[in-house]
Write a structure and sequence with these properties.
It is built from 23 helices and 15 strands. The chain has a seven-stranded mixed beta sheet with strand order 9-11-12-13-10-14-15, with helices on both faces. It has a six-stranded mixed beta sheet with strand order 3-2-4-5-1-6, with helices on both faces. It has four domains: 158 residues, Rossmann fold (3-Layer(aba) Sandwich), CATH 3.40.50; 78 residues, Helicase, Ruva Protein, domain 3 (Orthogonal Bundle); 171 residues, Rossmann fold (3-Layer(aba) Sandwich); 68 residues, Helicase, Ruva Protein, domain 3. The N terminus is likely disordered. With 525 residues, the protein is of the alpha/beta class. The longest helix has 18 residues.
């Protein structure tokens, strides 16, 4: 494997996202400026080739493509029509010699050239460097297209890296219109796409390549015999494949919604208002996509449940960012893993990125230099930079229990939209939590004295209330009776809430949050 190039990677990582149109203008500018070797990072070779052919037509240049299986052939020709193949140019050194021998202005598209840029092929690296010096005085350009970036140190100064943007909404809309036109005449396929449904489907498809989007639209048609705005789970399933292949993020199929969360009304209202801000209408209104929130508070009070409910409520995929997966024993690998995880999250955006217990993930950043050679501090810095600079619609939901372990840099406005303090539930909220959990387990809440249960659970968290109900169910099942209020009360008496054993820490947390964070619920009476 070629050595890592942190400078190149960081420059590329901090670069603003290009639209397809802006990318074409930038690529044409670099070609006209006689940049010798361009490296486009993408798996969409077809779209890159179409872009290069358009530029070549305007600049009156020929276009050739190369791969290790066919050698150098005119670009755009089908495999069957490639009569003028030159088998000798399958070898990368022979192909590069052919570039030098070509006199006319031309663009050379080298596909999947990255395996030949490793230490195992020093002659290819040297040849490409020599050609780069030659091309600066010609009207020829080599364009390397690869899904990964592998740049040897010897070519750092000769290669210019570009990230090919994913399809825009207009690109996906054109694809969808073409598919609808092709299947609309079929009687066995029903097209049920009004403006709102079409908008939801396109919104869900953002982040897919054109090939992936075409595949998922075709799968919906074959599977359901229709194309409608109700088929978003199929689009999310396609995105789940992308996440699964990365191995760095975990995809959650969230089934919870706000009705399953007792209390936290102020937080729910805030999230409901932001939920509409991902649509095209919001962009036209001038609204930016929401950046994220930090949920700070007592354990077991619904912070993680909120992250799952937001995903379901907004109909966006939920990705869990596990910091433990990021750390690697090799120098520089942990930071690279974070960047790759972020790129995967952005590639499936719009999405919700859930960073659970962020206080534990980044604990010890101040002493990182002495304990782990500064790895934690560098990983944290990479993550903070992305929070500040990100333009992709990735909504971050970070949860934390201990403010003492939270680095102050994370709390600065601009990285996240808001900090919410999630306190222990009030009496009314406890009654609501009992109602939700009893109903979830097939019991009629009207048969229980919810007021008595709420009074008996002062200082209990939502998780502790749920566990008390489960314990009471075990007792009732063992006794061969039906669950009732006395059985639940008996289970509650045997439970000691965390608030009693950690009263000092909770009071300190409330004192810190006062004036520094918004309350997720109405203030306690």
């Amino acid at each position: 494997m070629a050595p890592l190039v942190p400078r190149q990677t960081l420059l590329n990582f901090a670069r603003p996202k290009l639209t397809p149109m802006n990318f074409q203008l930038e690529l044409e500018t670099l070609i006209r400026a006689r940049y010798p070797v361009l490296y486009i990072v993408t798996s969409e070779e077809t779209r890159v080739q179409e872009t290069v052919l358009e530029i070549a037509a305007r600049r009156q240049k020929k276009v050739f493509e190369w791969s290790c299986t066919i050698g150098i052939v005119p670009a755009g020709a089908s495999i069957q029509s490639q009569k003028s193949r030159n088998p000798g140019t399958k070898d990368p050194l022979a192909a590069l010699d052919h570039v030098i021998e070509q006199v006319e202005p031309a663009l050379y598209l080298f596909k999947d050239f990255h395996p030949f840029l490793s230490k195992a092929h020093p002659a290819v690296i040297r040849k490409l460097k020599e050609i780069a010096l030659h091309l600066k005085n010609s009207f020829k350009t080599i364009i390397l297209v690869s899904p990964v970036m592998e740049i040897p140190t010897e070519l750092e100064k000769e290669i210019t890296v570009l990230n090919f943007p994913l399809p825009s909404r207009d690109d996906l809309a054109g694809l969808l219109d073409r598919i609808v036109a092709e299947v609309s005449a079929r009687k066995d396929v029903r097209i049920d796409l009004d403006e709102a449904a079409r908008d939801r489907l396109l919104q869900a498809a953002l982040g897919l390549t054109l090939g992936e989007a075409e595949n998922v639209f075709a799968r919906i048609i074959v599977k359901h015999g229709r194309l409608s705005g109700e088929d978003l789970p199929e689009v999310f399933a396609e995105k789940q494949q992308i996440i699964r292949k990365s191995g760095l993020l975990e995809y959650f199929a969230a089934r919870e919604d706000f009705d399953r969360i007792g209390g936290l009304e102020l937080l729910k209202q805030w999230l409901l208002k932001r939920g509409r801000a991902f649509c095209l209408e919001a962009r036209q209104f001038g609204l930016p996509a929401p950046r994220g929130i930090l949920l700070l508070g007592v354990q077991g009070c619904g912070k993680s449940l909120c992250a799952k409910a937001v995903s379901n409520q907004w109909q966006l995929p939920l990705l869990r960012f596990d910091m433990g997966r990021m750390f690697n024993s090799f120098v520089g690998s942990s930071e690279e893993n974070v960047r790759r995880a972020i790129q995967v999250a952005e590639s499936v955006a719009p999405a919700v990125l859930w960073v659970d217990e962020i206080d534990k993930a980044f604990a010890g950043t101040q002493a990182s230099g002495a304990t782990d050679g500064g790895t934690t501090a560098r990983v944290f810095g990479t993550f903070l930079t992305w929070l500040s600079e990100k333009t992709a619609p990735v909504f971050v939901v970070a949860t934390a229990n201990d403010i003492q372990h939270l680095p102050p840099e994370l709390l600065r406005k601009g990285r996240l939209d808001e900090i919410f303090f999630v306190d222990l539930p009030t009496r009314d909220e406890r009654a609501d939590i009992f109602r939700i959990h009893l109903a979830c387990r097939g019991r009629d809440p009207g048969r229980f004295d919810l007021d008595q249960l709420a009074d008996a659970t002062h200082g209990f968290s939502g998780a502790e209330i749920e566990e008390a109900i489960i314990s009471a169910l075990y007792d009732a099942f063992y006794a061969g009776t039906e669950l009732d209020t006395p059985t639940v009360l008996a289970a509650l008496k045997q439970s000691v809430p965390l608030a009693r054993t950690m009263d000092e820490q909770i009071q300190a947390l409330r004192s810190w949050a006062e004036g520094r964070a918004r309350h997720a619920s109405h203030p306690r009476a």
